[in-house]
Design brief:
The chain has 10 helices and 10 strands. By secondary structure, it is of the alpha/beta class.
Length: 246
Amino acid sequence: MLSIIIPVLNEAENIEKLLAHLSENSSVENELEIILVDGGSTDGTVQIIKEILGRALPRFRERPLNIQLLISEKGRAKQMNKGAQNASCHGGQAGEILYFLHADTFPPKNFDKYILAEVKKGNPAGCFRMKFDSDHWWLKLAGWLTQFRWRACRGGDQSQFITKQLFNEIGGFDETFTIYEDNILINELFKRKKFVVIQQWITTSARLYNQKGVWNLQYHFWTIYVKRWIGADADELYAYYLKHIK
């Protein structure tokens, strides 16, 4: 039983492609639900999702999908927490495993099997190793490094699975963080020594690197990481993000 929670904001170009990918690359024997949580899209994302939900069978080639759309305040932490609160899976039973996925990130074939296998082995949280859809040498290297368990190599683009029990124990995503919320949760998991890296490739978009420039964006991401490491609070990190990235 896997609840896939996807925060969306202006993802009209990606959303149907992602849903098709999830249908084609998940296992028919596992129960899945997909919870799309929109944070105020203005590009037609919500309309596209509603059109999909309005089809007699929202089927994407391989299997029908159990999809629900939620509307939330803007902010990935708020959106993902709302999705987690509404996770139910088929039959109205509580979603046992939460899987947080960015809308421009595409999991490997049989991703659900890999996640469920780790949980059955006693690993309640983790991610996949990641590669960018780019040939830039630095992004290739950055992706290669994600196979290791080092905390410095972690990020939300690698996706995040976690049992609902552990997620609730931690208190969910910290909504005071407008950015860096994934890393805050990951830090809590590392403190508990409850984190694994599944050695299968997940592919994420390099679109922000393409827009901002690889070295420019990487410098600012490193700066945010160091600022948090030396004690910057959520407001300081967001102010830096608005000034240098947004």
